[in-house]
């Protein structure tokens, strides 16, 4: 047993552990692959968003450069800018020095003093922002600044956004410019065409308010419930650019592939583990059979040695004429006869088992009366019953039935059951041999009052070389072939063998054979 445990432990270490490590590394690799693929996909999406952001920034920068035209006044530039860009609702210009302001409205926009007041308040509250823009401007950079949360000032239905920058007029004075945009119209005019080109048939694109999630403009039925990649619109920080695949997203495809790979890996590991378990069981069975064969050789040697020793001793005594009493001589002759019969039975079992193993066992079938055969077998054991003080009861079925069988094989099967009943019984040996006819079958029942067989062992007792492990079986020698031969004989005769047993109560072995019908009997006769 220790040897088996060591072998199984080595197999587990050499197979299961590497498999588990391999599985862990594969899972880790799948996770890393998914992360890398996701990062690549995000970078590609970010590149698309960057191009849109760059376009929006360039367009607003062009507005700032037009307003800063040194060949004409800012008023002319402002009017021209509003006429050319329908999305501009209002353009507010404030002189940096004396805070005087000039307001321009779009063609269809009504003047609104409240909005003008809000812009003045914004200028007052964001003095630091304006100073930075002025410093950039003086340094030669005209930076455009998006106005955050301008939608909070809008009281109209359409969403608005605002931008501010610094310009200089013909008199070289600095001015703060504040432009209020209609977001939806501006995006459609400035970004819409480019979004359509970039999206094509493979991508959905959208611009939405990052706080309210309201979609301002979309291309190809953008779905906010599905995965998408987004980035803040630089020039209008309250708006969000977003893009997604028209079909399954790359992340979803990667996850699905990773999931499929994971399932396949788990299935492979399960198959390998099952295979290893089967191999381990096979090794266990092989080791068990090897141990049983070793025990078989030892038991057979003992079984043969005992009758041979008795035969030799009694024959030697008779040869030397050491017995003058004829009754004692007859007794010695009987012992020699019985032991030679026991030896013959053992050798026949071994030979039959060898023929069965080599598929060379041949049965000679003939029509026999089952009750007569059982009665004959019982009579052959009368001396053994008397010698070993066995109380054996014979109950034969009142009806006669015939079977097509090999009488020697059936005798061998029943004899093995009787031998076991005697061998594995306790102090008082009681055996009942009976026959019965039921459901077209005639059966022989051999019932003993022995130690019984555990339920967990019943299915194994017909295996070759198998013996139930307990104190009585260990002290009682046997080959472990008897019940295996019984099972083979019953299979060859289209019969069946059953066992009913209780520990410390006894066992009942039932051999059932199909009855030969009358028309079959006539044909055979």
UniProtKB/TrEMBL annotation:
Pfam families for this protein: HATPase_c, HisKA
Protein name, per record: histidine kinase
InterPro entries assigned to the protein according to its UniProt record, in alphabetical order: HATPase_C_sf, HATPase_dom, His_kinase_dom, HisK_dim/P_dom, HisK_dim/P_sf, Sensor_HK_Regulatory, Sig_transdc_His_kin-like_C
Protein origin, superkingdom: Bacteria
Catalytic activity: ATP + protein L-histidine = ADP + protein N-phospho-L-histidine
Keyword Membrane found: yes
Enzyme class, UniProt record, top EC level: transferase
């Amino acid at each position: 047993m220790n040897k088996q445990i060591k072998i199984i432990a080595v197999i587990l270490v050499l197979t299961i552990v590497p498999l588990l490590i391999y599985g862990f590394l594969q899972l880790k690799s799948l996770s890393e692959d998914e992360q890398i693929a996701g990062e690549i996909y995000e970078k590609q999406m970010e590149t698309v968003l960057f191009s849109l952001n760059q376009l929006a920034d360039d367009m607003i920068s062009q507005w700032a450069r037009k307003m800063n035209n040194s060949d004409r006044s800012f008023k002319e530039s402002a009017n021209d800018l509003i006429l050319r860009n329908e999305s501009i609702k209002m353009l507010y210009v404030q002189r940096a020095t004396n805070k005087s302001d000039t307001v321009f409205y779009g063609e269809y926009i009504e003047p609104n003093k409240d909005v003008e007041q809000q812009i003045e308040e914004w200028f007052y509250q964001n003095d630091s922002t304006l100073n930075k823009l002025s410093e950039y401007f003086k340094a030669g950079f005209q930076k455009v600044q998006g106005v955050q949360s301008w939608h909070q000032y809008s009281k109209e239905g359409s969403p608005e956004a605002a931008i501010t920058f610094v310009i200089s007029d013909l008199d070289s004075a600095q001015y703060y410019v504040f432009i209020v945009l209609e977001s939806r119209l501006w995006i459609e005019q400035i970004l819409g065409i480019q979004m359509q080109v970039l999206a094509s048939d493979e991508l959905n694109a959208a611009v939405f308010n990052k706080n309210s999630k309201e979609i301002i403009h979309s291309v190809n039925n953008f779905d906010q419930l599905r995965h998408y990649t987004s980035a803040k619109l630089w020039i209008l920080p309250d708006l969000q650019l977003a893009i997604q695949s028209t079909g399954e997203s790359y992340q979803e495809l990667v996850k699905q592939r990773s999931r499929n790979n994971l399932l396949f890996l788990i299935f492979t590991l399960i198959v390998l583990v099952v295979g290893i378990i089967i191999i381990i069981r096979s090794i266990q069975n092989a080791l068990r059979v090897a141990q049983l064969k070793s025990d078989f050789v030892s038991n057979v040697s003992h079984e043969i040695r005992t009758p041979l020793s008795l035969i030799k001793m009694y024959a030697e005594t008779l040869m030397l004429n050491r017995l003058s009493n004829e009754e004692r001589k007859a007794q010695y002759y009987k012992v020699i006869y019985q032991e030679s019969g026991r030896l013959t039975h053992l050798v026949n079992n071994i030979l039959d088992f060898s023929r069965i193993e080599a598929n060379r066992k041949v049965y000679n079938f003939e029509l026999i009366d089952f009750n007569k055969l059982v009665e004959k077998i019982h009579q052959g054991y009368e001396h053994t019953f008397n010698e070993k003080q066995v109380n054996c009861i014979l109950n034969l079925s009142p009806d006669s039935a015939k079977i097509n069988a090999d009488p020697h094989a059936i005798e061998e099967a029943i004899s093995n059951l009787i031998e076991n009943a005697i061998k594995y019984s306790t102090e008082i040996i009681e055996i009942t041999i009976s026959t019965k006819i039921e459901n077209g079958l005639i059966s022989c029942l051999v019932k003993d009052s022995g130690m019984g067989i555990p339920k967990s062992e019943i299915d194994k007792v017909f295996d070759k070389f198998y013996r139930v492990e307990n104190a009585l079986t260990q002290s009682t020698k046997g080959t472990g072939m008897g019940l295996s031969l019984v099972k083979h004989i019953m299979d060859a005769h289209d019969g069946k063998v059953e066992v009913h047993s209780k520990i410390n109560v006894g066992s009942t072995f039932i051999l059932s054979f199909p009855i030969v019908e009358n028309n079959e009997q006539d044909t055979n006769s």
